[in-house]
Amino acid sequence: MYSIDLRGKTALVFGVANQRSIAWFIAQKLSEAGARLVITYQNERLKENAIKLTKSLESPVLLECDVQQPGHIENVFKNIQNKVGGLDILIHSIAYANREDLGGEFSKTNKEGFLLALEISAYSLIPIVRNAAPLLSKQGGTVVSMTFQASEKVFPGYNVMGTAKAALENEVKQLAYEVGEQGVRVNAISAGPVDTLSSRVIKGYVDMKRAAAERSPLRKNISLDDIAGTALYLSSDLSSGVTGEIIHVDAGYNIMGI
Ligand code: NAD
């Protein structure tokens, strides 16, 4: 049996909002494997949650980061450089769209809603990797982002977020090429539907979940642990030859034609 040992490694996790967040399940998995955790929270409102959740972790570093706020991303990496010194693992688990853009007719998406969804859910990976690269490159590092199959196929209700995920997946490949020269890897997990704060807002989410359980080869919905397990693999040397990949963790749903 393989055991993954991340002792001596530092992991930075973006996207912990509450105890159901995918980012939180990944953070716990990385911590169990021995990694030191730096966790960001979006704003003061979510700070309390982050403090409560991370009490169980060994000396976590908590930093505020709203990717829309000027200077926030840069500040995270300045803090990491000063307080921690380096970085080995980066988890990007961030997405947002206006509620009215996650249902109804896609053609009604307005420019403001489109740009907001794309800025937070897709663009944010670019400045994050740009700022992380010099820190990651010292020891060779790995970046993992979160996506959904609506980037490839139509999932009614996912709407503008499908566009954002298509952009994000393309970024994963272009960034993987750029930082690959320094030995840094960039991948994404395309996860099946799981109940979180964000997913429940999507009109059609219940149908997506039911279809996945009925029609996926494994005839089940995936769990938050399934996602965290793959994130752990992508964060470890077991995946040392893997970069620019979009790995489906969806009980195989994506291979089906019907
Ligand atoms: P979540 O609501 O727990 O996480 C979303 C996170 O995005 C939150 O922590 C929130 O604070 C953060 N965020 C939003 N706007 C931000 C901003 N301006 N600056 C910084 N952070 C911001 O929900 P989740 O389901 O854990 O989502 C995490 C990722 O997983 C997202 O990219 C989502 O699209 C993706 N995903 C989710 C599912 C699912 O079914 N839940 C499936 C596939 C992919």
Detailed description of the structure:
Helix content is 40%, strand content 14%. α2 links the parallel β2 and β3. The model has no long low-confidence stretch (mean pLDDT 96). The longest helix has 21 residues. The protein has 8 helices and 7 strands, in the order βαβαβαβααβαβααβ. The protein has a 7-stranded parallel beta sheet, sandwiched between helices. With 258 residues, it is α/β, with parallel strands linked by helices. The site of nicotinamide-adenine-dinucleotide has 27 residues, from α1 and β5.
Residue share in β-strands = 5-15%
CATH architectural group: 3-Layer(aba) Sandwich
Structural class: alpha/beta
Coarse morphology: globular
The number of helical segments is 8
SSE sequence, one letter per element = EHEHEHEHHEHEHHE
Our measurement of the CA-to-CA distance between the termini, rounded to an integer number of angstroms, reads 36 Å
Give me the side-by-side strand order of the main sheet. 3-2-1-4-5-6-7
> How many strands appear in the DSSP assignment?
7
Provide the CATH superfamily: NAD(P)-binding Rossmann-like Domain
If you consult CATH, what is the topology?
Rossmann fold
User: Low-confidence stretches at least 5 residues in length (pLDDT < 50)?
Assistant: none
